Amino acid sequence: MFTKRWLSFSLVAILSLALLFVARNSFSAPDEGMWTFDNPPVKILKEKYGFVPTKEWLDHIRLSSVRFMDGGSGSFVSPHGLVMTNHHVAMGQLQKISTPEKNYVETGFLARTREEEIKCPDLEINVLVSMENVTDRVRAAVKPGMSDAEALKARQAVIAEIEKESLQKTGLRSNVISLYHGGEYWLYRYKKYTDIRLVMAPERQAAYFGGDSDNFTYPRYDLDVAFFRVYENGKPLETPHYLRWNSQGAGDGELVFVSGNPGSTDRLYTYAELEMLRDYRYPLMLNYINKFIAALREYAAQGKEQQRRALGIIFGLENAKKAYTGEYQALRNKDLMAKRKEAEEKFRQLIASRPEWQQAYGDAWDVVARVVRKNIEFSRRSFYQNLRGYRLPSLALTIVQYVTEVKKPDGERLPGYHDAQLNELKFMLFSPAPVYKDLEEAVLRFGLQLSLEALGPEDEFVQAALQGKTPAEVAREVIAGTKLNDPAFRKKLIEGGEEAVQKCQDPLIQLARRVDPLIRRNIKKSQDEIESVLVKAREKIAQARFAVYGKDAYPDATFTLRLAFGVVKGYPYNGTRAPYKTTLYGLFDRAVSFDNQGEFALPQRFWERKDKLDLSTPVNFVSTCDIIGGNSGSPVINRQGEVVGLIFDGNIESLSGRFMYDDTRARAVAVHTAYIIEGLRKLYDAGFLADEIEGKK
Amino acid sequence: MFTKRWLSFSLVAILSLALLFVARNSFSAPDEGMWTFDNPPVKILKEKYGFVPTKEWLDHIRLSSVRFMDGGSGSFVSPHGLVMTNHHVAMGQLQKISTPEKNYVETGFLARTREEEIKCPDLEINVLVSMENVTDRVRAAVKPGMSDAEALKARQAVIAEIEKESLQKTGLRSNVISLYHGGEYWLYRYKKYTDIRLVMAPERQAAYFGGDSDNFTYPRYDLDVAFFRVYENGKPLETPHYLRWNSQGAGDGELVFVSGNPGSTDRLYTYAELEMLRDYRYPLMLNYINKFIAALREYAAQGKEQQRRALGIIFGLENAKKAYTGEYQALRNKDLMAKRKEAEEKFRQLIASRPEWQQAYGDAWDVVARVVRKNIEFSRRSFYQNLRGYRLPSLALTIVQYVTEVKKPDGERLPGYHDAQLNELKFMLFSPAPVYKDLEEAVLRFGLQLSLEALGPEDEFVQAALQGKTPAEVAREVIAGTKLNDPAFRKKLIEGGEEAVQKCQDPLIQLARRVDPLIRRNIKKSQDEIESVLVKAREKIAQARFAVYGKDAYPDATFTLRLAFGVVKGYPYNGTRAPYKTTLYGLFDRAVSFDNQGEFALPQRFWERKDKLDLSTPVNFVSTCDIIGGNSGSPVINRQGEVVGLIFDGNIESLSGRFMYDDTRARAVAVHTAYIIEGLRKLYDAGFLADEIEGKK
Fold first, then answer.
1. Is the separation of the CB atoms in B620 and B675 below 8 Å?
2. pLDDT digits over A375-419, tens only?
3. Residue A195: left (phi > 0), alpha (psi -120 to 50), or beta?
4. Which of A575, B525, B531, B643 has the most crowded Cβ, counting Cβ within 10 A?
5. Contact B364, B540 (CB under 8 A)
6. pLDDT (tens digit, 9 = 90+) per residue, B256-270?
């Protein structure tokens, strides 16, 4: 619920379904925090590490960092628009440019010339160019006497207005972000790039060595890297803002930074919300994911091509399952919950100690608890009263809503359909990425079946969707009959507007039209009765926090640019110690230990070229930097602003970090720069690319 | 408490202080059990693995297996008396034959000819040649109407008689063993060897790579092996009973066996006893060990030679600390305790369901609970009312007791001083192994200080030991003044008998004489009021178990020969999977990952000869075989009776196995035969030894 609209287009949706409003709760500081660039942790850095980041240092790192709208982070690593991210962030695009004959996910890819670089069908990346505090203007829109629902509408309207103004004035992607849980509102302006071309990716078996088993664990041995090049006006982007490369990497104990876009954390959820997550939301999500995986496995079992088509979505689901499982364990950990409870009680006692605080903020926790508890069943039903398919059902619903919404005044539209958002929406809508009808049918059948089972045949959504047929029949009919797989058809519908859509006989459009009123009704109820109340209560809690603790704090993650810091450091694990880094020796050990089978099979080139490799080359390393999903692809940076690594995961102990940070065992896992260079030069014959990165040409 | 006397001579003492009577409680079967050779798990083996061990197979394995009285296991691996065990089992002897100039622990050792093999000063090894059930005779000694204390004495007397008769008749080491918790008594006869010579040991840094950090963990990379040769009449023992070597090792999933001497398990402790361990015994032991380690570190910090002298004892303590810590965690694990409680309740309900059972056995659990709880404070005081030193104080006390005890009728003596035990006792007493007075003084000072702190200055033991002086003064005086470091002096005292000892002015003998009455008083109370009651109650529980479940079961470990079985198999760990084996790649990975520092530094020869090694050689591997401390050095054997590995440890998840077996994660860790051969040939220039082992000459 409350998921950002665009998320439903990608697998990030699955990772973010539990996303609500967020903030932070711990104010002491180990190496904690995902800090905004306007408020870096200068005090801690100075006191703990004797390091004072200059404005130039911060600006340069910010402008060298990028956000992948596919759901990750990255950085410029050459003056010629070369962007580095993870293979697993690139995977969606790799799949979209692959065919049964040329499966780049399996074989990897290398463009030996600029001409060979392949344009991605629907990849957008962003650079954060400015940040402006617009809290006063947003707050001013809410007038005394407004109901909560009216206040939320007024807020949404003024936000849409600010974004539209900014877009018109600057031409930049403009988003107003709620930080500190409604404590502040900021206008973030992004330079947006959509001509992104694939330069290099290793085989998935090297990038994702160890597979789902090793995912979210360390020690680790992954070459989880991919390179894209940003083009502008048909030419590679020339930019002074890129990170210089350091192939030495960072030493044991060295101070490092991570600049990237953490997706969401729940560190400021109230205790009542954590209980709701533990008792309702996580069980629901894990059940959904498990069934979804089973359905896709059945689909993939049909053949090699089906396996190829389903690979990305299965990966996303398995990834989500492992993350959710770890987070669910954290929620069931009595120690962690007791700490959260204690912190909340202490905070509330402080508020209660001053009458003016108690008067202004004191009721907020109870309000949150009440509204959350009251709507558990509504939230469950809303989850299932939705078209849970893969790409086509989302496209259909978006088209149906789009043509209606754009006729309304900007401030009154559904979230996601404001003028300032239409460019990105159309970019997704008209994406030429391939659509696989058999996969679409399998997923839609699964989704409809799930809704039927969860809601029963009498439910109005189920009746509207199925009209007395079986999920299999409906899925077969609408997917077989739809032309929405053709981007030109989608474009024609959008251009034809409400009339064209109303007349349209496309069976998937008709299905979307049948369920749209119910989905709208749920959104309205959710906005009017839940979100409006929560926004207000959470804003109070945020203000209470500022009142008690000041602004010496970081906001919860919002998939916007943040700076984390920490040291390179091993940790206690499995009865012994995990080292701060791993090596190529370890990669071969793990492969041979599993007899080079399954998830632990190394690509043939590793065996053929083994003797050319320096096996003592560091492969992956860990640091105490505070990160979470969305940080994938973030550069790890040293004091000099050089890139020394590439974030790609957290260890299993870090999964409780969604709720509470703890640097005794939680670690961010990164690819070492030395491995990237060793790999490019000796495994992939990409010395020219290594030269570009290392600045040798 | 209830520690076997001989144990106090070795570090095994520390590992076994919590040892009481033992048995088993789980009768379903994964790969569970430490089976006696008279009752192998033929049914499970046949049903689960289709394997039926023949009598010849069992006999050959039993006669090829040896027990190291230093506290471990081993096996013959050539027809010329060559015995393989762990480096860490050999370590005590390695230390005893080392000097400041020739530190074989640090440098390793290789005898290039028979003449270069070094005789160990006090190593005894045993081969189990026969087993005879003497339950009826032991039971018959207990007459109706005897008190518990009288019954215990009668049992001890008849056992001493059986052992003496057997020794006189056969000349073999003869021990009556209480199995199944007093459910059965067996006379075990051992062929005993005391002319044992060191053949080969690697550097400790290769054998114990990863040190205390990696101890009790897996994945692992240790060459924990040493070779001895057994001599008889001055010549290498020629024997048809040795295990043929298989350098291929065992494959993933293969059935394997372990033949060795597990020290002790507590799987049949009643719930009340587990609570006592958790709440009193383990905290006491961990406190003692921690303080002992601190005292020894202080001693070792004085210089390199002190470090060398203290190395073995510090290793033993750290090993014990890690084992105790894991076991203590198991005891504090609510799930495990709940399972034990549930099993006990179920068992007791079954007993209660038949009046004749209830009548015969029903009260045993309450009796155990009562006596255990009643004597907690007595047990604590007894622990501290003892001479806690290293070797000299034990020698002194043994001499003082010896001369008195041997004058009594055999059946009335203190445990450990029966006629059948005197040969082994004298072997230890007259050992020519070097004694380091500065180390002895440091440890005795620590022990006296500990008693003083725990008991207070008014305690009678403390007063008898210190006589108003400080622990430091007493330790300095008695160690400086004693001649007990001279084996000839010890022999003279023993030969002089009670009169010589009474007249003896040696200050350490005098100290032992002062405390001996108190120690005897504690032993008597322990025997009369605790052990006699427990023996009877435990025998009832054992009989109840036979009545309910039959003899389709194994007894708890008793440091006698057992057969375990299982499969080679990885397991879930750290969020991912541990492989069934590790490789030399992994050894180098772990070294380089820690920058070749500290516990993870590899001996220079590994770096120099790296390119000669096949890095894909398996190093260590795991199986589900059910083992525990004392199994160190046991061979891992395949169906063909070939040795495929060498047990040296359990993983961290196996430590709860003291109380309950669980094969989902608990694993036995072994050195792979391929690594031993690769090491001998390519790292240690010991091809001739590899040839002997592989039967190539």
1. yes
2. 999 999 999 999 999 999 999 999 999 999 999 999 999 999 999
3. beta
4. B643
5. yes
6. 999 999 999 999 899
Q: How far apart are CA B334 and CA A600, in angstroms?
A: 36
Give the pLDDT of residue A13: 33
pLDDT for the residue numbered A506: 98
Q: Is A528 exposed, middle or buried (0-12, 13-18, 19+ CB in 10 A)?
A: middle
Nearest beta carbon to residue A583 from set B579, B582, B593: B593
pLDDT tens per residue, range A21-51? 223 333 346 899 999 999 999 999 999 999 9
Phi, psi (5° rounding) for residue B218? -155, 145
In chain B, whose CA is at the least distance from the CA of A570?
A: B594
Distance of CA B261 to the CA centre of its chain: 8
The residues facing A232 across adjacent strands are A235
- The DSSP letter of residue A6 is G
Do A585 and B582 lie within an 8 Å CB cutoff? no
- Check if B333 contacts A (Cβ < 8 Å): no
Min Cα distance A649 → chain B (Å) is: 13
Q: Using only C-alpha atoms, what is the Rg of chain A?
A: 25
Q: Do B593 and A582 touch (CB under 8 A)?
A: yes
What stretches in chain A show pLDDT beneath 70?
1-29, 697
Residue B148 within a domain = no
Query: Of A293, A331, A101, which is closest to residue A212 (Cα–Cα)?
Result: A293
What are the pLDDT digits (tens) for B507-537? 999 999 999 999 999 999 999 999 999 999 9
CA distance A676 to chain B (A): 17
Look-up: residue for tokens 């991912």?
Answer: B576
- Cα-atom radius of gyration of chain B, to the nearest Å? 25
* This prediction's pTM: 0.93
Judge whether B67 lies within some domain: yes
pLDDT at A4 (0 to 100): 24
Q: Is residue A323 part of a domain?
A: no
Facing residue for B588 by CB, picked from A322, A573, A615? A615
In the predicted structure, residue B555 carries a pLDDT above the cut 80: yes
CATH number at residue A663: 2.40.10.120
**B235 and B120 part of one domain:** yes
Cα separation, B219 vs A214, in Å, equals 14
Please check whether residues B261 and B281 belong to one and the same domain: no
Q: Is residue B500 part of a domain?
A: no
- Spatial contact of A561 and A65, defined as CB atoms under 8 Å apart: yes
- How far is Cα of residue A348 from the mean position of the Cα atoms in its chain? 32
pLDDT band at B549 (very low <50, low <70, confident <90, very high): confident
**Nearest CA-CA partner of A211 in A202, A198, A220, A201:** A220
Claim to verify: residue B219 and residue B300 sit in the same structural domain? no
Domain range for residue A222?
5-124+194-266+556-694
Predicted confidence at residue B181, as pLDDT, reads 86
Over the range B188-198, which residues count as b (16 or more CB within 10 Å of their CB) and which as e? bbbbbbbbbbb
Nearest to A213 among B577, B587, B651 (CB): B577
**Domain count for chain B:** 2
- pLDDT score for A3: 21
Decide if B574 and A326 are in contact by the 8 Å CB cutoff.
no
Kindly identify which residue of chain A lies nearest to residue B655, measuring between CA atoms.
Answer: A575
A-B interface: how many C-beta pairs under 8 angstroms?
90
- What pLDDT was estimated at residue A29? 64
Distance CA A184, CA A137 (A): 11
- What residues form DSSP beta bridges with A650? A668
Contact B582, B221 (CB under 8 A): yes
Res B26: pLDDT: 36
Q: Please, which residues 310-329 of chain A have a Cβ atom closer than 8 Å to chain B?
A: 322, 326
Among the partner residues B217, B576, B581, nearest to A210 by beta-carbon distance: B576
Same domain, B568 and B657: yes
